[in-house]
Amino acid sequence: MVKIVTDSLSDITSDIARGLGITVVPLTVFFGHESFLDRITITTDEFYYKLTHGAAWPTTTQPPPSAFADVYNKLAEETDAILAITLSSKLSGTYGSALNAKNLVKKKCRIEVIDSLTVAMGLGLIVIAAAKAAQAGANLDELIDLVHSAMSRSHLIAYFDTLKYLAKGGRIGKAQGLLGAVLSVKPILTVKDGEMSPLTRLRSQAAGMDYLYNFVAGFPHIEEVAVEHTTAPDEADRLVERLSSVFPRERIYRSTVSPVVGTYAGPGAMAVTVLEAEKK
Amino acid sequence: MKQVDTISGQDLREMFAVATAWLEKSASDIDALNVFPVPDGDTGTNMLLTMRSSIEEAYRAPDRSASAVVQAMADGALMGARGNSGVILSQIWRGLAQGLAEKESFTASDLANALLQASTMAYKGINNPVEGTILTVIREVASAAQAQAASGNNDLISVMEATLSAANESVANTPSLLPVLKEAGVVDAGGQGLYTILEGACRYLRGEAEQMKFRKPQIIVSNIPLITRSPQMIAADEVPYGYCTEFLLKGKGLDPDKIRTRLEKKGQSLIVVGNDSTIRVHIHTLDPGDVIHYATPLGTMHQVSIRNMDEQRQSFLEMQKERMPAVDMAIVAVVSGVGLTEVFTSLGVTAVVPGGQTMNPSTKDLLQAVESVASDKVIVLPNNKNVVLTAEQVQSLTGKSIKVVPTETVPQGVAALLAFDYEADFETNVQIMNKAKSAVRTIEITRAVRSTRLGGLNIKKNQAIGLLDGDLLAAGNDTSGVLNKMLAELNLNEAEVVTIYYGADTEPAEAERVSVTIREQYPQLQIEVIRGGQPHYNYIVSIE
């Protein structure tokens, strides 16, 4: 069976990862000189507490090639085909690490690495789709085709409650135009061509939640839906409740936004991802 | 700690060969800093080519004394100078060569003196020196070097480090000296280039040549707050750009000052530098033939380059199109008041036409604004009932596609602008914006210009009056009282956001008190108080 590898920015919870046999390689978060492995030595709750209460501004780094190599080597004991799917290479050097790590694998094993050009559950739903297909017996070439198809069908949008963290982090790409606003505005962003890109701007959280709801409701054929947040579990519950009118509630994936993206999203952010059904 | 007391000619050459390689890594990043209209299009590349020519000549120097090497570098820079910043760079080298004349090797205080000469020389070649450019940077670098050398420190590394940190600060400060940089949100490209060269030289002295192979120079980020996009305040009739004309003149007994005086009236951005045998000329002119015609009898012409700057500008606009999201559409808004202009600009309006109540812009004003933006599709936000009709006239006067979203108040304009969808097309955006404008209610508080009786209200001249979406609803003696009365008319329980823009004649403290009153009554509301600075209206309030 083909083994699926991804990074912690996929926002795949440990339950899902275990159930579908996905190996998640963590990125590293630094607060000053303290370093943490994303979701392993720091929980998302601890992270957001430190982000909003601490003095140190967090920085993040991609996993080194050796971290992927360790995973590849271990998996190569039990399989001869591995598919690694990483977050957008335009947001992090993780893809490069995953690719370079191939040279550090001794056993004979075919390893393919795909740059998903997206992030968070935009990536997560692609990985989940691949893992399900792998469990159903798809081979590596079939999985590569599936991932490329899923990449074109995965649509993520995010509501940020504040622009403060996005501005501080500096990693904003085309979202630059949102900064410097005199009014307090709540941006809606998406991932376009692998980069964060502005979609529109709203004035209130309520309007933001309406926008996310209408975004999902606008898709006629939905395969999967994910809802994730940084520090707003109650708001996420309410959104899931509303979405249950367009998609079965028990099938909606719930997660929290990984600390790495959370550094920019800040508290109160919410994201929804739709994996469109394949057109028949 | 490593210390360097003197630098020989050979060291000097190696040092700047490494600095040139360092600059090369950053050249395209520096090119990207350009803002138009700029005297030359590719600052990073031009400075790199100038430095390369300088280094090549350094390897041909007759002997290895510092003076011979630096003189060769100055000659090389002059021969190879490209563009405005390249020519100024060649002047800097010329100053350094003068400062280090007859030196076998040089010390910290020699370097400080030479940098001072370099700064003087850089200003000298130019007719109208502009601050906030490479000129400011070399001047501040020179004075930092002076200060460091005067402190009695003989270590060349610490002098170079002092110049480098002065250069860094100076570059970071360029946007506050040159508005065009501030608007574009970048530092000056020429200044950045000079910083990168100095950084490369300094790293060489510190013995970091090996590590530099694996690193890349950084572009300095200014901590001066950016203006997101420049509101193209319309519109002095556009200045034609003409031709960027450059050449090298070789001859005998040439007189740079005389040539400069003669060319002064033939164009703009004139630079004439060099000596009695070689002179480099850079000018922006509408008639390059005239310039060439004047120079030809003086000697022989080399490296003649004439480039059409209107074409350059066109390709620059093309490049901007690729960089900016959705720049194939532009939004023109009619706004008055400093604060409100800032609000609209920060939300991405491409051009602002000043105007509003009692100062309605003409069709021509609006037409000029529409023509001034780079996009062919333009959305106009009149933001006033009396401007809507004028705005609608523009369509018949221009080849561009115009859509007027008939916003009648400032809050409607803001709501429409906010709703702009970066991914949607022109037609869809017009629909979205039309819909968004109807979702907001507007209260305006102003003063009655005459006594009247209207809608059952007796109004005295100069009394405060309140309008809800343009309809007169309340009058009274004090403005905040009328505002509170107006707010009471509305069902604020269903509102989410209340934004209060207070006018030029309103005290911030009064506006703050009004917001406190509302907050006490409706704690669930998100309330913002913003200095709109608009004339006539004490308050414009948006209720969403």
Explain this structure:
The complex is a heterodimer of chains A (280) and B (544). Chain A is of the alpha/beta class. Helix content of chain A is 37%, strand content 26%. Chain A contains ten helices and 13 strands. Chain A is globular. Chain B is of the alpha+beta class. Chain B folds into four domains: 7-212, DhaL domain (Serine Threonine Protein Phosphatase 5, Tetratricopeptide repeat); 243-313, Alpha-Beta Plaits (2-Layer Sandwich); 324-438, Phosphotransferase system, mannose-type IIA component (Rossmann fold, 3-Layer(aba) Sandwich); 441-543, Hypothetical Protein Tm841, Chain: A,domain 3 (2-Layer Sandwich), CATH 3.30.1180. In chain B, the strands form five sheets. In chain B, strands 15-14-11-18-16-17 form a six-stranded mixed beta sheet, sandwiched between helices. The longest helix of chain B has 23 residues, at 9-31. Chain B is elongated, with a radius of gyration of 30 Å. Mean pLDDT of chain B is 86; it is low at 225-238 and 320-326. The chains are: A alpha/beta (280), B alpha+beta (544). The interface between A and B is medium-sized, with 22 and 27 residues.
- Provide the residue-averaged pLDDT of chain B: 86
Mean pLDDT of chain A: 90
Strand order of the largest sheet of chain B: 15-14-11-18-16-17
Secondary structural class of chain A? alpha/beta
CATH homologous group name of the largest domain in chain B: DhaL domain
Give the strand line-up of the largest sheet of chain A: 10-9-8-13-11-12
Tell me the CATH topology of the largest domain in chain B.
Serine Threonine Protein Phosphatase 5, Tetratricopeptide repeat
Give the overall shape of chain B. Answer: elongated
Helix content of chain B: 40-55%
What is the N-to-C order of secondary-structure elements of chain A (H for helix, E for strand)?
EHEEEHEHEHEHHEHEEHEHEHE
Measured between the Cα atoms of the first and last residue of chain B, the distance is: 64 Å
**Alpha plus pi helix count of chain B:** 20
CATH topology of the largest domain in chain A: Rossmann fold
Radius of gyration of chain A: 18 Å
The total domain count of chain B is: 4
- Poorly predicted parts of chain A: 170-177
Q: How many β-strands of chain A, per DSSP? A: 13
Largest sheet data of chain B: 6 strands, mixed
Kindly provide the name of the CATH class of the largest domain in chain B: Mainly Alpha
Q: Please tell me how large the radius of gyration of chain B is.
A: 30 Å
Helical proportion of chain A?
25-40%
